[in-house]
Each structure stands twice: as C-alpha cells, then as structure tokens.
Amino acid sequence: MRFKHCICYRVAPGWYANLALAEEQLQAQRFVPCSPTQESSAGWVEPRGQQEGPLLESVAGQWLLEYLIESKTVPASVVRRKLDERCAQIERQAGRKPGKKERQQLKEDITHELLPMAFSRFARVAVWIDSTGLRLSLNTSSQARADEVVTALVKALDGFGVTAFHTQTEPSGAMAAWLADGGENLYEAHGFTIDRECELKATDDSKAVVRYGRHPLDIEEVRQHIAQGKRPTRLALTWEDRVSFELTGGLQLRKLRFLGGVFDGADLTQADAFDTDAAIVTAELGKLLPALLEALGGEVRA
User: Fold this and answer.
1) At 234, phi and psi to the nearest 5?
2) Strands 192-201 and 231-239, bridge-based pairing
3) pLDDT digit of tens for each residue in the chain (302 aa)?
4) Burial 102-115 (b: 16+ CB within 10 A, else e)
C-alpha cells in the first residue's frame, strides 16, 4: 500500500474509533460487482486483497481501507449510430421523425441494451485513517473521487465527519514566498527543499500559465513572474531527503515518491509485506503532513 497522491482531511473531534464496530458498519457497504445492466457500482473491498477478509485493517495503530469503483460505459459513437438507425426505422414505418423526448428515451433504451456487452473499468482508492492524529488521507488526485469516498465513509461510520485543512498561510501564498526567497531557511525550519518543477498562473484575465520542468527555480525570471502577480499552483518539494511530492494550491500532495533509504531493510516479498509497507508509508506521511502544516503557518481549527 503505497500512496501516489494524497488528499487529506481533518477528522472531526468527538468521533469514537472502535475497530470492531467500524468493521461491522463497513460490511453494509461491501462492494458488489455491477449486474449486466448496471452502469456503476462502488463499495469497500479487502485492502489485503484476500477474498472474504476484513474490510478494515489496523497496522501499527493506523486504519487502512480500500474503496473500489466499477463503471461501464458504452461508446457514444456506438449509441449515436444505433439511435440514428432506430430513428430512421421509425420514420420509414410511421412516416414521422421522433421528437426530442422520444429520441432521449430511445437513447436510454439503447444504452441499457448495450450495457451487458460493455467492458468494466475499475478504480481503487486506498484510505488511511489516523485515529490518533485524527487525519484522513486518500490516495487520489481527483477531488470528485475524494468526495465520493468521503461521502461513503460518513455514511458507513456512525459519528464520522471530516473538514478540509485550513492553514494560516494559503499554499499558493506560501509557495510564492518560498520561491521569492529561493527557499531560504525552509529546510532548516521545516525540512523541505524546493525541487525543479513548478507551475505559475496569472490571476488576471489573461490566465497566462508558465511551467518549469527539470529547471532551477532559484532564478530571477521566476521572481519576476511572482512580482508581476503570477501565483504558484504547483511546486515540487522534497521533505528530509525522504519523500518528494508536488504541492498544489488546494493543499493536495501529488506524485509522491519515497526516496532511497526509506524502504531499506524492508523485505516486501514476505507474507507480511502489506504490514511492512503500510507501517513505513503511514509513518513517513505521518511526520511529513504535520511538518507541511507548520511550514504553512500552522493549522487553523474552527
């Protein structure tokens, strides 16, 4: 279980973390595959991948889950072709063209008829609940997908709720300040270094975008863009030479990479590979996330 992306939330205080009760509640939303005529299905699956295993694993006190989404889509071009054929047939037989409502109904009928032949697409979202630190982390870069998983969690777990993280300094403002001073004191104060990837976007009507890839960012050109009003929307960072990632203006962590040394000595080919992997990942992110919040001026709680 290695996170490639991370969207984080603050778990609302007052939630009582009961492992056995949570497992029982999640069972009511266990994943069931799509029926032949069903367009989508979603639910909880075993994070270890063991059939009929628990839906909730606890490793070193950290809760781990996995949400699975199945979707079936009929190609729009196929539906249009079938619709045109059926409308032409009605026109020949009845001497009239189908109206707008009739065409819509025909389109729905055709989609329903073709669904049994459609291929399924699956998306998995790893979920980590730090029941002690009261943080929820989702392995996705899609806010819509994150919203779907959060909704499923809130529905499943009694008393569970989350709020977005808020910091004293918004991420874009902090990233602009770090780039303006070349990241001076950022490592000494918080353990972060600026890497070689960045995106700057103008806030005026031009919506101009400047992207740097594999390029030094401690240059006058970058500082001029910031002075002219462009705001960083993405910035590559490395924390303590252990984890590299891209911070977004929405406080998302993308393109997470655990660097050399983090997994040294961990034999991930053994039966306990899941536990070892999960313990290391949650331990690293469990230290990175608080350090990032501090670098952003500290968390603001309601």
Assistant:
1) -145, 140
2) antiparallel
3) 789 999 999 999 889 889 999 999 999 999 999 999 999 999 999 999 888 899 999 999 999 999 999 999 999 999 999 999 999 999 999 999 999 999 999 999 999 999 999 999 999 999 999 998 999 999 999 999 999 999 999 999 999 999 999 999 999 999 999 999 999 899 999 999 999 999 999 999 989 999 999 999 999 999 999 999 999 999 999 999 999 999 999 999 999 999 988 887 665 555 578 999 999 999 999 999 999 999 999 999 87
4) ebeebbeebbeebb
Q: Which two tokens stand for residue 251?
A: 């406080």
For residue 167, the 8-state DSSP code is: B
What distance in Å separates the CA atoms of residue 48 and residue 128, rounded to the nearest whole number?
13
Bridge partners of residue 246, in order along the sequence: 236, 254
What span, in angstroms and rounded, lies between the C-alpha atoms of 17 and 131? 6
Output the six-digit token pair for 103. Answer: 């065409």
Dihedral of CA atoms 245, 204, 208, 169 in degrees, nearest 10, equals -10
Contacts of 47 (CB under 8 A, 6+ apart): 1, 55, 56, 57, 64, 65, 66, 126, 274
Task: For residue 244, count other CB atoms closer than 10 A to its CB.
Answer: 17
Cβ(279)–Cβ(34) below 8 Å? no
**Phi and psi for 284 in degrees, rounded to 5?**
-65, -50
How far apart CA 153 and CA 28 sit, in angstroms, is: 11
Q: Are 63 and 126 contacting, i.e. CB atoms less than 8 angstroms apart?
A: no
Size (the chain), residues? 302
Q: Which value, to the nearest 10 degrees, does the dihedral of the CA atoms of residues 52, 58, 60, 65 take? A: 90
